[in-house]
Amino acid sequence: MADTGNVEAVRAAVGALNSGDPEGYLQAFTPTSLRWVPGIEQPFPLVDIAENIEQLLSAFTGFLLGEELLFGGGRHVCARWRMVGTHTGEYLGIPATGRAISVEQCEVYEFDADEGGRVTNTWSYGDPLAMFHQLGVVPGAAAAEGDGESTNAER
């Protein structure tokens, strides 16, 4: 039988986040958990992750991480999410644009049984500028405006 406990832990954490419960989401992570993002030398500690989640929930009406793919075994879980919402509040100094976002990202979660079966590391992959293109706040935004809206059939 496949090991699904960690997969279900990630699904439950994201379910809490999608229900507006960021604390429920963060409980899946150890206090020393780190998020690694390509192109950024230092990983983000949990306190920074928590702050960003609060900012996202405040700035994007209808914020949701939609599950597109979720699987794993042993200590690792891989997820492909689609983050959606409408930019109705300030985010990272960017005033509300009223634009919808639909951004795909992939994350790999590492669990540690010695840490209560919680996430100790996350590696996040995706286009870090995709959201900002869709918000129209970076050069080339017009060309990329619909990038997050394509369907699998269009790819």
Using DSSP, what is the number of strands?
6
- Rough outline: globular
Q: Give the CATH topology.
A: Nuclear Transport Factor 2, Chain: A
The top-level CATH class is Alpha Beta
Sheet having the most strands: 6 strands, mixed
Distance between the termini: 34 Å
Q: Give the proportion of residues in helices.
A: 25-40%
Structural class: alpha+beta
What is this structure's SSE topology?
Layout: H1 5-18, H2 22-26, E1 29-36, E2 44-45, H3 46-59, E3 60-73, E4 76-87, E5 100-112, E6 118-126, H4 130-135, H5 141-144
Parallel strand pairs: 1-6
Antiparallel strand pairs: 1-2, 3-4, 4-5, 5-6
Describe this structure in words.
- This protein is α+β, with helices and mostly antiparallel strands and 155 residues long.
- The chain has one domain (5-140): Nuclear Transport Factor 2, Chain: A (Roll), CATH 3.10.450.
- 28% of the residues lie in helices and 37% in strands.
- It is built from five helices and six strands.
- It has a six-stranded mixed sheet with strand order 2-1-6-5-4-3.
- Residues 143-155 have low confidence and may be disordered.
Keywords:
155 residues, Nuclear Transport Factor 2, Chain: A, six-stranded mixed sheet, 5 helices, 28% helix, disordered C terminus
Report a brief summary of the structure.
The chain is of the alpha+beta class and 155 residues long. The protein has a single domain (5-140), classed as Roll (Nuclear Transport Factor 2, Chain: A). The chain has helices spanning 5-18, 22-26, 46-59, 130-135, 141-144, and strands spanning 29-36, 44-45, 60-73, 76-87, 100-112, 118-126.
